[in-house]
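Feature request, filed as a ticket because there's no other form

It would be nice if the structure record came with a short human-readable summary line next to the tokens. Right now we just get the raw output. Example of a typical job, pasted below so the devs can see what we mean:
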Amino acid sequence: MRPRHLVVMGVSGTGKTTIGETLAARLDSVFVEGDTYHPRANVEKMSKGIPLDDDDRRPWLDVLGTEIQRQEALGRTSVTACSALRRRYRDWLRDGYADLFFLHLDADYDTLHRRMERREHFMPASLLRSQFDTLEPLETDEAGAAIDDTRPIDAVLTQCLDAVAAQGDRS
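Raw output as currently delivered:
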């Protein structure tokens, strides 16, 4: 059985929303856009080029964990787009649902910086370095997979679906 709740994670510019929405549609799951759960103060801070700290992130991640838990209580599966950059952030999300499966969209700084400069978003490209500095890749005891996000979107989606299917084969 495949994982019931997925988190598409990574630094800004990896395409978490695009990949997450498409995965949710293909897996007949609810899509949860993590950015829409940020309090106004977080968005304002990031818009000014100020990185978030743990005190900013904790309430946001708690709300996302609760939303995943709510989807589970309703009998739904979900795909959540959320940076989840540090192990402790992923642990906070797991407080809402322990069996989360993380898909870490992974690409190099230069590729992502170019992407960010071409899009409109409250998160400026100037904050990308702070996200890379914060990032802690998935640890071996965390359910998930690193996904090469430098390839075309169809290849990224295929790798994500293969990782989810492989996890389901282990269950």
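Something like this underneath would help us a lot:
DSSP finds seven helices and five strands in the chain.
The chain has one domain: 5-170.
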